[in-house]
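Changelog entry: the DUF441 domain-containing protein record was regenerated in this release. Current contents:
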Amino acid sequence: LVAWLGGRGVKLMSSQPDVVAGLLIGTVAGVALLRGVPVGPLIAAGLLSLFIGK
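Regenerated structure tokens:
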């Protein structure tokens, strides 16, 4: 599942590079404010691609 999400994330970030800044800000905010574990921008982009349908 994680590899599949990472693959979707690569496709999304290569087709829409403007989402990278938002993903990085969200990753840093999640780690700093919510004491989360950084899963990486690729996985976050894969999850985002599920929500926006790309």
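The mean pLDDT is 82.
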